């Protein structure tokens, strides 16, 4: 009987350790400090000089962010003159360069957090270097090829990385950029977990009490190849619930992005 109990205890411990290893270990809620120049494509998006969201640099003149971050009503944006972005710094309050936004283009189908994507055009080109640079976009589908199956790309459980200045568990916001690692969920798994299976979104799994929070919207979701897979859209209820976080799937919108590049 003792041997049997010991065997069961050992099995339970092994299962616990295996589960822990399978879960994303990083987090934005109380996450790990990012290093200078570690995420050169990350920008702090500011409304009336206050940080509201992240943005991802995709060229010397444009960034991507979540549409709800810059929406006045529906697809009608706030005034570009009220927006700016800090680039080249892991400190949301200082360093780097503040750049003005000259134009905001929200996806025309945006509504209720679907098609939650906007293109920001800068008033002047950025100078790329170690601390300021673009993130690569997914390749556009080849002419004549079939649409990528959202159920399979990226595969369920793909490691991805997010960096942001969102709120912590105590409601405070770090001045220093935080980084996190999460995993992707397939469309069917997101439907099963949250009843939210759409081709246009990419759901993200993480341990409870981890993940994105207020102020992290618009953050880049990047894979091991340093390709932009998603832009953080929203989380369910309070930060760090049992439900997955949701991002906008960039491959779904690549034609729209390319058509509006400047």
CATH superfamily of the largest domain: Trypsin-like serine proteases
**Radius of gyration (Å):** 19 Å
Strand-and-helix sequence, N→C?
HEEEEEEEEEEEHEEEEH
Give average pLDDT, whole number.
85
Portion in strands: 25-35%
- State the major sheet: 7 strands, antiparallel
Helix/strand/pairing category: alpha+beta
Explain this structure to me?
By secondary structure, the chain is α+β, with helices and mostly antiparallel strands. 13% of the residues lie in helices and 30% in strands. It is built from 3 helices and 15 strands. Strand 13 (220-222) and strand 14 form a beta hairpin. It starts with a helix and ends with a helix. Mean pLDDT is 85; it is low at 1-27.
Protein traits:
seven-stranded antiparallel sheet, 262 residues, Thrombin, subunit H, alpha+beta, 2 domains
Topology:
Layout: H1 2-22, E1 32-33, E2 42-47, E3 50-57, E4 62-65, E5 71-73, E6 76-77, E7 83-87, E8 97-106, E9 118-122, E10 159-164, E11 178-185, H2 187-194, E12 201-205, E13 220-222, E14 228-234, E15 245-249, H3 254-259
């Amino acid at each position: 009987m003792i041997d049997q109990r010991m065997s069961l205890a050992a099995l339970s411990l092994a299962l616990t350790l295996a589960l822990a290893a399978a879960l994303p270990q990083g987090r934005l809620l109380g996450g790990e400090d990012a290093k200078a120049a570690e995420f050169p494509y990350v920008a702090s998006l500011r409304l009336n000089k206050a940080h509201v969201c992240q943005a991802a640099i995709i060229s010397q003149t444009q960034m991507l962010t979540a549409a709800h971050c810059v929406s006045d009503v529906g697809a009608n944006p706030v005034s570009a003159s009220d927006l700016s972005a800090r680039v080249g710094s892991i400190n949301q309050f200082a360093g780097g360069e503040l750049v003005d936004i000259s134009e905001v283009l929200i996806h025309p189908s945006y509504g209720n957090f679907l098609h939650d994507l906007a293109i920001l055009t800068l008033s002047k080109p950025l100078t790329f270097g170690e601390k300021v640079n673009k993130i690569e976009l997914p390749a556009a589908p080849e002419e004549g090829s079939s649409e990528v199956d959202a159920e399979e790309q990226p595969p369920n459980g793909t490691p991805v990385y997010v960096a942001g200045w969102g709120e912590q568990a105590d409601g405070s916001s770090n001045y220093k950029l935080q980084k996190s690692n999460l995993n992707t969920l397939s469309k069917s798994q997101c439907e099963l977990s949250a009843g939210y299976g759409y081709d246009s979104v990419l759901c993200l799994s993480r341990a409870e009490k981890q993940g994105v929070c207020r102020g992290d919207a618009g953050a880049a979701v990047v894979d091991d190849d340093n390709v932009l897979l998603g832009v953080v859209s929203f989380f369910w209820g309070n930060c760090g619930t049992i439900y997955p976080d949701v991002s906008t799937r960039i491959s779904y919108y690549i034609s729209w992005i390319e058509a509006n590049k400047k």
